[in-house]
Amino acid sequence: MTSIKNKLDHSQKRIAHAAKNASRSVNEIALLAVSKTKPSSDIIEAYQAGQRLFGENYVQEAETKINELSKQYPDIEWHFIGPLQSNKTKTVAHIFNWVHTLEREKIATRLSQQRPKDQAPINVCIQVNISAEDTKSGVLQNEVITLAKHIDGLNNIQLRGLMAIPSANVGEAQARLELSQLQALFIKLKVIYPQVDTLSVGMSQDLEFAVEYGSTMVRIGSAIFGARK
């Protein structure tokens, strides 16, 4: 069985190859290892292989892992990448470094209010429903700037960029259209808010396309940890 270290190495090589093809520096693109549903032992194995950024989707599961690992591995950067409800914001505000799935002013306000004052502001990405699908989370393209303005007025939260999950199982033309629209929106946001530096897009199956269209953080789970049960 291929080790997590070997799978991490393979994923990094894919990112490097995609960056080269897009005439970008590989140093511009971070790998977020999506460890949801996986045991702490898998996270430790990835950590020992050099991985420091981990993504979790479920608050209760993540809280258990973070409490277990944070003292021994204080340099792990924890990213929340799942749907966030109001009743979970306090926990997320206390234990995570990043939230990728911000889509409501109310949630932004609660994260800011509940972030401990002795911690650095929590980094956030606005989730964009780039394909405007009814079944998908995220704000529409024309709502991004309004939400960004609200976030920028809060004290304990830092706007870092955009996150999206493009349409699955569509043709190349549609995939490129969505990614190009997301890239244009990211560039627009960077002009208004100079601290914006993160475009969180691309997963195991489509990271090459994402890198071509400016992704700075790819979220890879199954290609590192194997299929989820």
Describe this structure in words.
This protein has helices spanning 4-21, 40-48, 59-69, 89-95, 105-114, 144-152, 172-192, 207-212, 222-225, and strands spanning 30-34, 53-56, 77-80, 98-102, 122-128, 157-164, 198-200, 217-220. The longest helix is centred in the C-terminal third of the chain and has 21 residues, at 172-192. The mean pLDDT is 95. Helices cover 41% and strands 17% of the residues. It contains 9 helices and 8 strands. The radius of gyration is 17 Å and the shape is globular. Helix 6 links the parallel strand 5 and strand 6. It has one domain (4-225): Alpha-Beta Barrel (TIM Barrel). The chain has an 8-stranded parallel β-sheet with strand order 7-6-5-4-3-2-1-8. Belongs to the pyridoxal phosphate-binding protein YggS/PROSC family. The modification N6-(pyridoxal phosphate)lysine is found at residue 36. Pyridoxal 5'-phosphate (PLP)-binding protein, which is involved in PLP homeostasis.
